[in-house]
What we know:
The structure holds two protein chains of two kinds.
Chain A: H1 2-9, H2 11-15, H3 21-41, H4 49-57, H5 61-75, H6 83-99, H7 105-129, H8 134-152, E1 157-158, H9 162-169, E2 171-173, E3 175-177, E4 183-185, E5 191-193, H10 194-212, H11 214-224, H12 226-231, H13 236-262, E6 264-265, H14 273-283, H15 295-315, H16 321-350
Antiparallel strand pairs in A: 1-6, 2-5, 3-4
Chain B: E1 5-15, E2 20-30, E3 34-38, H1 45-53, E4 60-65, E5 68-70, H2 75-81, E6 83-86, H3 98-103, E7 109-110, E8 113-114, H4 116-129, H5 145-158, E9 163-167, H6 175-190, E10 194-198, H7 202-208, E11 211-216, E12 219-225, H8 231-239, E13 260-269, E14 273-281, E15 285-289, H9 296-304, E16 311-316, E17 319-321, H10 326-331, E18 334-337, H11 341-345, H12 352-364, H13 372-386, H14 402-415, E19 420-424, H15 432-447, E20 451-455, H16 459-465, E21 468-473, E22 476-482, H17 488-497, H18 499-506
Helix pairs in contact in B: 5-6, 8-17, 12-13, 12-14, 13-14, 14-15, 17-18
Amino acid sequence: xxxxxxxxxxxxxxLMNPKYVMVYATIAIFLIIYIFGAIQYGDKxxxxxxxxxxxxFTENAYYGISAVGMTMVxxxxxxxxxxxxxxxxxxxxxxxxxxxxxxxxxxxLLFAFVIGIGLGAIMGAGIQFLNVPPFxxxxxxxxxxxxxxxxxxxxxxxxQSDLIDALANFKIYIMWWNSDGEWAKIKPVCYINFNLILxxxxxxxxTILLQKTRFGRNVYAVGGNEQSAKLMGLPVARxxxxxxxxxxxxxxxxxxxxxxxxxxxxxxxxxxxxxxxxTCAVIGGTLMTGGVGYMxxxxxxxxxxxxxxxxxxFNGNLLSWWGKxxxxxxLLLFIFIQRIVVLYSARKKQK
Amino acid sequence: xxxxxxxxxxQIEMQFPAVKALDKVxxxxxxxxxxxxxxENGAGKSTLIKxxxxxxxxxxxxxxxxxxxxxxxxxxxAMELGIxxxxxxxxxxxxxxxxxxxxxxxxxxxxxxxxxxxxxxxxDELMARFHLDIDVTRPLSMFSTxxxxxxxxxxxxxxQAKILILDEPTSSLDDNEVKLLFDVMRELKASxxxxxxxxxxxxxxxxxxxxxxxxxxxxxxxxYGINELTKVELVTEMIGKDIxxxxxxKRAEVGEKDPNMLEADHIGVPGKVEDISLDIKxxxxxxxxxxLGSGRTETAEMLFGAEKISKGEIRLNxxxxxxxxxxxxxxKKVAFCPEDRKRDGIIGxxxxxxNIALAVQARRxxxxxxxxxEQDELADKYIKALGIKTPSAEKKIAELxxxxxxxxxxxxxxxxxxxxLILDEPTxxxxxxxxxxxxRLMLEMCGDGVSVVFISSELDEIIRCSNRxxxxxxxxxxxxxDGATCTQQDILNIIAEGAKAAxxxxx
Lengths: 351, 507
């Protein structure tokens, strides 16, 4: 037994555990694209910290925040199509509340949380107790929520709020000692904003939830084999409902981040956003059949997905639609990798 | 084994809406014994276990665990009471690590967080107790079924179980793995745990058990010490003696010169059935005997293309055939009536006419639909010929009695005018009169030159109808006997003793 203990203590063997293979695939493909970009457009500034932090991270932070919740839903073997609409509704509530009713934005946000989490819990309960497929249940949620957005207003509402302005303008500049020996902003200017901080915090929260709590482990168990999880005495119903509720929470938070980013509410905002979010999670190595997925993967999934538009921007000659095509190709590649991994491990077991 | 009784189930009754699955069954388990629970499928073993583990709720009787009456409400509750179950299918999560599968739901915590180090350390200890040297941080899916089975036992045992129920744990294990499992069982037994062991491998029962309880049709047959019954007596008790209908049936007449219709040459599917060779002459009735799970159905499915053979070959009329799917077999005039007619045979919402026309239509292909008139004629012909009791051919088949449903399925395949007809338990669950009629129909078909393969658990009807009888045991063909000369006792001996006895009969 000592022998196997020693085996495990080695960091290398621990990292070589096959359960991480999907995450490694994500990181590897991201590195390949990044290095390609560096070689092609390095002189134009592709490798600058600004490109990495602002173009790839910050501008996609709201997708990332939502992807944290989506990753969890996908791990249970479910899906949630309502996230884009819920984010949009959050923006509408904040915009309408502050601009038309004069309510403090935080009160509006609180209200949005109640709605988002409540809707998530209701959808989770429907999936669990009425046995409605997640796709159908959350599609219903999506239409309902999107309809409510238009009910509030069919026009874009601009937000004028000191708090939102302050959060939008909040920037931590990245500084360094320049060649003159002075403490100065790096060039090109690069900063970390509120949304990025929120995203990073949510990734950490998600990781802790998934890896360090019983709830998180139950999420994996439900996704691995729901019937078994039930027979092992795990609280399957509670876990599933909580996962959808947590996803509702993430959607609202993502909507808040998006609202800060655009400083307005629009009933058609983030149409199709749910698909972007699912893409981030899937190319981050989360198995759509459930049971496998890591927050670190999702973090790289967001990076990988945003690296493509960045590349196209740097090229300058390509139409932005190429971004969609490249994303589609990437998604396909990942689904292939997933199938191959599953088939390979099945074959290995037979031997 | 001590004499201290750990579990007592008294006069357990289980009434489902339509059937009484258990009728006043008693069962006692002592501390530190392995107690086998025996009976054919449907005898009530599973129901008894489900009452004990809280999956079903008994409708009568008492369960007394260590002197206190209990009534488990669900498996989780039963587990808390100290009753753990390991099922045949592995109920673990393949995506989680070995260690986590053992501890999920009751992970040791430290500062409000899961203490992974402790989980892995304790899992290592447990696995060492089971003599397994594996890395418990690897996902469960990477390990063989045997190891997964051990892990589920480890999980069951580690929750301070007083009683461990093993429901067919050995059916997917090879000999070495079974030995490993038995070692573990002996250790658990020595530590004072009571083990209920369910299996259909008779040898294993005699190897590991201290006592056994036999059920039949929801009734208790008896509880015996392992040395009180021989294997033959055991099999007799399990199957029971059916009411013998004296019915004047004449065996099909087959001469030595009649050509072989179907030949199977060393066919097999790994893990299910091995190396079966058999042949059926034109117009012959070949019986398949053996306990449930002995590979009878799998063999039939191989002949029909429902189970893909991985070795050997099948010849029809002397020509090699390759059935990749049932449709191929249907096209070559091979027909198959499956065992579970409710699940695989009838289509409940369709009428009798449609159910009969189904197979004929399937063979013609959808490009040549049968006219309504053709269907009506076909249905009327067989309703009359088989004596199907129904007011009209348009009645839904689900509304017929079991015996009449079986006749409709028989009609479906007779209508295709097959050369080979395989019938898997065609007489199960139907009354005695209908049984005799089905037997008569089979033999009539033989007279018309159809080769019939007849699978049944009831030895008397196999002996009464078959020209030759193939005896299966543990996925192997162990003997082939002549239907006219053998007795029920001969077959029981062969089933109980396996290959050894088979040699004697042949000699």
